[in-house]
Design a protein that fits this description.
Elements lengths: L6 E7 L18 H9 L1 E7 L5 H10 L13 H5 L5 E6 L2 H4 L9 E4 L16 H14 L5 E7 L10 H5 L18 E2 L6 H31 L6 E6 L11 E2 L8 H4 E2 L1 E4 L9 E6 L2 H10 L29 E5 L2 E5 L3 E5 L5 E5 L15 H19 L11 H5 L3
Parallel strand pairs: 1-5, 1-7, 2-11, 3-4, 3-5
Antiparallel strand pairs: 2-9, 2-10, 6-8, 7-10, 12-13, 13-14, 14-15
Helix pairs in contact: 1-7, 2-9, 5-7
């Protein structure tokens, strides 16, 4: 394997749903720095987590193995870079991530302290997210060239400690103020639940997004002024979203694989503005992060036996290089997404079907009206799992016109 002189930054923010960001269509939360990032980046519209479990997701990120694979097929990204001149560093506020398999192969690991949080802070710079970003920016200012800086923020999986005014600003005059708790909520909504409770938690989540947006602005400015800015790629994504009332759930009470949990953002910002404002409709998953990082850093992919495909090819117009289907799994639950449909198979074998991309958050279940489509997708879901376990994409049957474009 060989490497070039390029550097890379990967920012992973936990529990960041795509639907809460301006570049993905949100209009009620101001996210000027995410908007700026979107204007400067290639954006993937349909990124689906392959699992809601963080260790499984990181196996996908670092080894290119899909969540349905029984075991990783290669060494992790930091391990593969160990024999090169690229300096690797992991900066995180999540102990679990700092201790995951493969994390020990980073040249540096910086764990930002997690102080107990009992109440909202007074200033955004006092939040735990801000402290993490400050540590990453401090490292970047002295970064050896070339480097891979991997930043993992607990994001909305950590304390919701934004200043109270940040969440309160979203409440209308007739709305009750959002809850003041800083512990991320976990609720199963019962019949007859109070919609104001859901609205309050949505406003609290929006307050955290506001803090995150400010932190992102600091990072973007630091990258712009860094010594290696002309050779540094920035990728920003999330491993999983955060249910906020959809399908009767707030938080992570269970792992039903609906869009609010699976649909996450992914921005790819090239140095020099290449591919800025490009929007890619292809389906992308976490194993593609592995391939994309190695591709940018000039590493040979031959013989790694991974499931991932580099998304960087889309910058040159090779949009077909990214797959036409994506799958996820958790606790006996399985899901398959094609350009036109989303099939969810529950642990009890009950199946739900939703038309895509129009039914963005799976509100209109249509399995009873499309039984042939359900059966076709159900078969392809099993086929997908077998192909993943064999690390052989050639086993995937080409999609029919119905699965690609829907019903007339």
């Amino acid at each position: 394997m060989s490497a070039n002189a390029r550097s890379g930054i990967v920012l992973v923010v936990d529990r960041l749903g795509a639907g809460y960001l301006g570049p993905y269509g949100n209009t009620w939360i101001e996210t000027p720095h995410f908007n700026r990032l979107g204007a400067e980046s290639m954006l993937f519209e349909f990124v689906l987590a392959d699992s809601p479990r963080l260790p499984t997701l990181y196996r996908s990120y670092w080894t290119g193995a899909h969540a349905m694979a029984e075991a990783p097929g290669t060494g992790g990204v930091p391990d593969l870079l160990a024999s090169t001149a690229i300096h690797t560093v992991l900066v995180t506020d999540d102990t679990e991530v700092s201790e995951m398999d493969g994390a020990e192969c980073f040249d540096e690991r910086i764990l930002v302290g997690q102080e107990p949080v009992a109440r909202a802070v007074q200033e955004p710079g006092q939040t735990q997210m801000a402290r993490l970003f400050a540590a990453a920016v401090d490292w970047l200012e002295q970064a050896p060239q070339p480097f891979l800086l991997w930043i993992h923020s607990r994001g909305m999986a950590g304390p919701w400690d934004a200043p109270s005014e940040f969440r309160n600003r979203f409440a209308d005059e007739d709305d009750p103020l959002p809850p003041a708790e800083v512990e991320p909520p976990v609720r199963r909504l019962q019949t007859g639940y109070d919609p104001d409770e859901v609205l309050g938690w949505q406003h609290a989540y929006a307050g955290q997004i506001t803090v995150l947006d400010l932190c992102l602005g600091v990072l973007l400015d630091a990258v712009k002024s860094s010594a290696g800015r002309d050779d540094t790629l920035l990728m920003v994504t999330s491993p999983r979203g955060y249910p906020l009332g959809e399908h009767g759930r707030i938080g992570t009470r269970d792992e039903l694989l609906y869009g609010e949990l699976l649909h996450v953002p992914w921005f790819v910002r090239f140095p020099g503005g290449a591919a800025a404002t490009v929007r890619c409709p292809q389906l992308v998953q976490p194993p593609d992060m592995f391939a994309s990082v190695l591709d940018w850093l000039g590493m040979e992919m031959e013989g790694t036996g991974t499931w991932g495909t580099s998304v960087l090819r889309a910058a040159d117009g090779e949009l077909g290089a990214v797959r036409d289907r994506a799958a996820a799994c958790a606790d006996g639950c399985r899901a398959l997404r094609t350009p036109a449909w989303f099939l969810l198979r529950h642990p009890d074998s009950r199946r739900e079907l939703f038309a895509k991309p129009d039914d963005r958050w799976e509100a209109n279940e249509v399995a009873d009206r499309c039984q042939e489509t359900v059966e076709e997708l159900d078969r392809l879901l099993d086929e997908f799992q077998h192909a993943v376990q064999a690390a052989d994409p050639a086993r995937l049957t080409p999609l029919s016109e119905t699965l690609l474009r829907g019903l007339d």
